[in-house]
Amino acid sequence: MGACQSVDRSAPSISPAYNLPASDTRQTNTDPFGQLVDQYEAPIRLDWQQPERVLAMVEPLPGKKVADIGAGTGFFSFRLLEAGASVIAIDIDPRFLQFIEQRRDEGPDSLANKLEVRLAKPNAPPLVKEEVDGVLVVNTYNFIQNRIEYFTAVREGMKRNAWLLIVEYKPGPLPVGPAEEEKIASSLIIQELKSAGFSEVTIETKVLPYQNIYLARGYQQSTDTITSIF
Predict the structure, then answer these.
(1) Is the CB of residue 175 less than 8 Å from the CB of residue 39?
(2) How big is the chain by its Cα radius of gyration, in Å?
(3) Which residues, in sequence order, are bridge partners of residue 86?
(4) How far is CA 204 from CA 19, 23, 54, 190, 214, in A?
């Protein structure tokens, strides 16, 4: 979350993407960053984030190189590793990158060698041309400024036929997530992705209880196709 806009994530009120109901935070850590880690890694998150269902949409993953933009604690990065991908974990907060590195170094070398971290820049993804087979952006899109320019650069870092998967919160009152005024309409996300050169934009509304999933391809076709699945 917040991989591309510099925000103070020491206070939960400024990091709404993973906010949990007060009765479920179970925070005992007195360190502000430690509290944030506890929040991101709270077991209850599995109930609604359902990472295995998200990653199933982009299988097969073995042998693929995936950029996880807004990696946070590595919630998805390490699951991508376990699924057989190599991962570039990207975040604007160096504390999260240090957390990921420490966790990586405590694991088996066979996985550690397949995970690298990169510090995000506010206006450009730290990717080289045609570097990755896929890009994952979870609970982060609304934090990115100059999104058309940013995702144009993301697309340039993707191989032909590579995929982009974005997870963002649905409209309406939800027990988790940002304030309503901070959410981005599905129509605007689609419009921005098209303007950035993406094609085959698919919206899946039923996989997750509180979030929509957007899947797009990084190459241009003569006619863009948009599919909504309801």
Answers:
(1) no
(2) 17
(3) 65
(4) 23, 30, 10, 12, 6
